[in-house]
Structure formats: C-alpha cells, structure tokens
Specification:
Elements: E1 2-5, H1 8-17, E2 27-30, H2 46-60, H3 74-87, E3 93-97, H4 101-111, E4 121-125, E5 131-132, E6 138-139, H5 151-155, E7 160-161, H6 164-180, E8 184-189, E9 192-196, H7 202-209, E10 214-215, H8 216-226, H9 233-245, E11 249-252, E12 263-266
Parallel strand pairs: 1-2, 1-3, 3-4
Antiparallel strand pairs: 4-7, 5-6, 8-9, 10-12, 11-12
Helix pairs in contact: 4-6
C-alpha cells in the first residue's frame, strides 16, 4: 500500500496511526505544491511549469521558506509513483483528501497523470464527515492534520475505488481551471473548485489590519486564525506586497531583514504619490 497526502503535517499524523493498525502501513508520498494558488496555464508543458516556478520564487522572496522551493519536486515524485505502480502490479495507492481547496486541487493535478492506473487508486475524501477531537467532542475537520491518529482507523473505512467516471470527468475539470488560469482557487463544496481573482483575500487583510499599525507577524497570526477560507502565509505576504505597491498599505521596515522587521498600516483608501516608510503611528500590539 502507498499513501498520498498533500501536506507534510498530514503525513506525520497518518504515520502515527500505523502503530495502531499495521494494515495501514505503507510508504507516504507528499505532494507539496499548493495548486490552489498561482498560475496554471500550460502547467503540463515545460514553459508553463517554469512560469509557475518563477511565480513561486517571487512569492517566497524574503520569506522564511526561501530555500524550500529547490527541494519541492512534485513532478519527480509522480514519475517515481508511476514507476512503482508499473513495476508492482499488486500495489494500491490511497489518496487522502481533506475538505479544502489545497487538497482537492492537488488531487486534480495528480489525477490527470494517473489515468492508466484506473482500478488501483483509492480515494478517502473526508467531506462533511464528523470526527472526535481530543476532548471527546464532535467536529468536522477541513484538514487531515486535525484528525487524531486513532481516528485514521475510522477514516480508512471510507476508502473507495476512484470510478471510471471520475477518471473521465476530473481531468476535464482540471483543464478548465488551467485555462481560466486564476491566481486563487476556492472549494465551493464536494470537489467543485471556483476560480477567484488575485484580490480575493484583500478585504480580509484590510479588515484585520484595521486603522492602526500592526506588526506583520501579528497580522498573519490573526488572519490565519480568523479567515474562513484558509491560504498560506507566504501567499498572504505576496498579496500584501502587491497592496503596498498599489498604495493600499504603508510599510515600515526592510524586507531584506525578514518578516519580523515589517510593520504595516492601511492607507484608509487614500492614494499616495510616494509611500513614506519612515513615519508610522505607534504600534498597537
């Protein structure tokens, strides 16, 4: 058995469940790119893939993750996955998906490359399913890492074979998203992904920022806690940089010194000819 997940944190919890149930044991493959954001046009071609990589380089600039892009190679992982499935005809792959756009978009990207393995792929989609948390209460997880290792024993019963119909329709859905080539994609329900403008998170950023100055790390913490539709902190910072360039947000500090050096303040909708990076109101946190 081989497991496929879309976040390292999901792999960690899944691996812990192996101790509780030996029948779950198997190699875990992590697809690491977040296909819910960024350009997708011609992603199957070398030029399209390079365009996406260049976009990520811009997003990760000055971030704590700057060195990670070089070690993320989903295409190589899929090449190795296909080779293993071709060499071992008894091997089954289980694809674990949480109810979020990150996992579902990763699933679509993966499916378009695995058509020849119909009948050997199982899907476990935790879609609107209740689980028990550490306090014994019922909750509906959106991410796999929210589930306790013991709950994976319950989740494994959800495994079902990906149908021939899904192998026919899901690649078409992915091609549609690639042609739309939006920068943001959100999950509407089931496996339905909607393309959104790159400004999708701007209103929430400005709402949380408010009228006072705020450290970037505090703004990110509040956003990641309160956002209804989650996305990554690196993407949020990239969007904040774009809003600074558009004079919607003022900045104090130097990006070269890292995120901890940055303080932000909304302009209140006024347009400035030049952003003053030296004069800011006192920080409120």
């Amino acid at each position: 058995m081989l497991h496929i997940v879309f976040e390292p944190s999901a792999a960690e919890v899944l691996e812990q469940s192996f101790v509780l149930d030996e029948t779950l044991q198997g190699e875990i493959l992590v697809i690491e790119d977040d296909y819910a954001v960024g350009p997708l046009q011609n992603i199957s071609d070398a030029d399209g893939w390079q365009a996406r990589k260049s976009w990520w380089e811009k997003v990760l600039e000055h971030s704590p993750y700057i060195g990670q892009l070089a070690v993320v190679d989903d295409k190589l992982k899929v090449h190795q996955l296909k080779k293993k499935l071709e060499e071992d005809l008894e091997l089954q792959a289980w694809i674990w998906i949480g109810q979020n756009q990150h996992d579902v978009c990763g699933y679509y990207w993966l499916m378009i490359q695995l058509a020849k393995f119909q009948g050997r792929l199982q899907i476990l989609y935790l879609n609107n399913l209740p689980f028990i948390n550490e306090k014994g209460g019922i909750f509906y997880p959106t991410n796999l890492y929210e589930i306790r290792p013991s709950e994976f024993l319950k989740a494994k019963r959800l495994a079902r074979e990906i149908t021939l119909s899904e192998f026919e329709l899901d690649p078409d859905e992915w091609k549609k998203l690639c042609n739309e080539n939006a920068i943001v994609r959100t999950l509407e329900g089931g496996k339905k992904i909607i393309s959104q403008p790159e400004t999708f998170y701007d209103k929430e950023i400005l709402t949380i920022l408010g009228k006072s100055s705020m450290k970037l790390h505090r703004l990110l913490g509040n956003l990641l806690t309160k956002m209804r539709i989650k996305t990554g902190d690196a993407f949020l910072v990239w969007r904040i940089k774009e809003m600074i360039a558009q004079n919607q947000i003022l900045i104090q500090g130097s990006w070269e010194k890292g995120w901890k050096d940055i303080t932000l303040k909304a302009t209140g909708g006024e347009l400035f000819v030049e952003v003053d990076t030296t004069v800011m109101d006192d920080e409120t946190d």
